[in-house]
Amino acid sequence: MEKILLTQEHVIDLLRPETALEVAFIEHPDFFEGLFWGKPRFGHPEGQVLYHIREVLDNIELLNISDQDRDYLRTVTFVHDTFKYKEHRGHPRDWTKHHAVLAKEFLEQFTDNQLLLDLTQYHDEAYHIWQNLFLFQRVERANERLEQFLHRFEGNMQLYYLFFKCDTSTGDKNPAPMKWFEKTMKNINIVDL
User: Fold this and answer.
1) Total domain count, the chain
2) Which long-range contacts (CB under 8 A, 24 or more apart) does 175-179 make?
3) 142: domain range?
4) Is 189 contained in some domain?
5) pTM score > 0.90 for this model?
6) Are the beta carbons of 93 and 37 closer than 8 angstroms?
């Protein structure tokens, strides 16, 4: 399947930015290029990143949350996967060039809000913990990561959960990590989408 390249106006029509920050993202050439990365694959049958962003934004609209939490979730949604096109995929992996790290570094140009930066950089951390526990059988490593994760998002676990739920509830992603998260994490209010 060929990549479909849209104009900035088409991207704005699709993503419907609501803030000056969201518009600034779209106007940034590195961000704009990243919107078109991807082809249909397991977990992401929609293909290109901009269509995944639209799906996550649609899920956010289903939540009954404060305006601030909504803005936070939208900001993370815009940037979380947009730098997959720059991610290092060689062996051994250069984890400093992981898409989430690159997204956080991009976002640092616009904010110093540590919660937003952490949500961006660690948006897949719950999945990685689940993967270590259930797929790779690396229980010790999973528990180390879980302890760090719980410390990092102490007091903000609900917001992390809401992003994880909105992101995981797209395409044909495996629901097992979300089921594990909802069963395991304390002090979250479970939502249905």
Assistant:
1) 1
2) 176/130, 176/134, 177/126, 177/127, 177/130, 177/131
3) 8-184
4) no
5) yes
6) no
